Input
Amino acid sequence: MNALVVILAIIAIILLITGGVAHTLSFLLYIGGIILVIAIIVFLLRFIRRNV
Output
């Protein structure tokens, strides 16, 4: 599961950079942002469950 979070974060960063460089592909900024938020939520859920 930890590898999944890392992969999601890497994909999100790549999409954010690509969306920033190519103005015509600006929708990738939104997709990258959504994936990044999902990766952060999954990481926080795992962190909270481990410490409880």
About this structure: The two ends are 18 Å apart (CA to CA).
